[in-house]
Design brief:
The protein is α/β, with parallel strands linked by helices and 265 residues long. The protein has a single domain, classed as 3-Layer(aba) Sandwich (Rossmann fold). It contains ten helices and eight strands. Strands 1-2-4-3-5-6-7-8 form an eight-stranded mixed beta sheet, sandwiched between helices. Helix 1 links the parallel strand 3 and strand 4. The longest helix has 30 residues. The model has no long low-confidence stretch (mean pLDDT 97). It binds D-malate. D-malate (MLT) binds next to loops.
Length: 265
């Protein structure tokens, strides 16, 4: 469904029975809500589930190609308000985790639980900011096919990359459909995001942290550091998965998410 949120078009999928708590899935960069298919299919059997395309991605508007994580957080609250979602469990992977952490920092009372997947609370180092600047320039010149071929070997297990598995092809298709101008704009937004680390010890809602065993973009050591700072938190390493743990090992990912959701009842 396509809806205007404060005048900006956001595409979302809302499924499952009407339950008190909605589970909201926020995808990573440079993907779309399609990456949450294994979770939407599974959890809609029992819960109200919402996934949406972060502005610039998927079927949401591209606008003028200039974004901030703050805009993305405002979109999330705008969407929750329009859909009358009072309380949610927020599940964010990588960039989705950046958005989720900032949203909880702003209005923790709107959330019942937080799930941080393959993400980090720190902002970009100077080295990464410089890398993003180069990537933002080259994605506009060489396009999304080339970018997907560079990104996926860093984000998926060697098995998925070498064998060009179904997972690889599905992720490639999602990335290729995104606009290169929009992805360049998102890279600048990622580089300009705030550091939410000082906020971690104040998080009061139960938090589940999951990370792929072979994640090199946001490695398990980074998740361990977040776990140490968040009082009411648990952490699980997802085997046979790299940065896109929900897609590479959905059975294991869903098992821990199920347990966490039950613990919130
Ligand atoms: C993502 O998966 O969302 C990105 O890898 C995040 C990032 O580049 O910081």
């Amino acid at each position: 469904m396509y809806i205007k949120v404060h005048g900006f078009g956001i595409d979302y999928t809302l499924e499952g029975p009407k339950t008190d708590t909605t589970i909201i899935f926020i995808h990573g960069f440079p993907l779309s809500k399609e990456m949450w298919k294994p979770q939407m299919e599974e959890f809609k059997k029992e819960y109200s589930v919402l996934s949406y395309d972060v502005r610039g991605h998927g079927l949401s508007d591209v606008g003028n190609g200039q974004y901030t994580i703050e805009y993305c957080v405002d979109d999330l609250f705008g969407l929750m308000d329009i859909l009358h979602i009072q309380k949610a469990v927020l599940v964010g992977l990588s960039m989705g985790g950046y958005i989720a952490l900032r949203a909880v920092e702003k209005h923790e009372d709107r959330f019942k639980g937080l799930v941080l997947c393959d993400t980090r609370s720190e902002d970009d180092t100077n080295e990464i900011k410089i890398k993003r600047a180069h990537q933002a320039k080259s994605v506009k010149i060489y396009g999304m096919n080339k970018f997907a071929n560079l990104f996926l070997p860093t984000a998926l297990t060697q098995n998925n990359v070498k064998k060009r598995t179904d997972v690889f092809r599905r992720m490639h298709d999602i990335i290729e459909r995104n606009s290169s101008n929009a992805m360049a704009g998102i890279m600048i937004a990622l580089a300009a995001r705030t550091n939410t680390t000082p906020f971690l010890p104040s998080i009061k809602i139960p938090t589940l942290i999951m990370v792929g065993q072979f994640d090199e973009i946001t490695p398990p050591s980074v998740s361990i550091q977040m776990k140490e700072k968040i009082t009411d938190s648990e952490m699980h390493i997802i085997p046979d998965a790299a940065h896109l743990s929900n897609t590479e090992n959905p059975d294991e990912f869903n098992k821990y998410l199920h347990k966490f959701l039950k613990s919130l009842d």
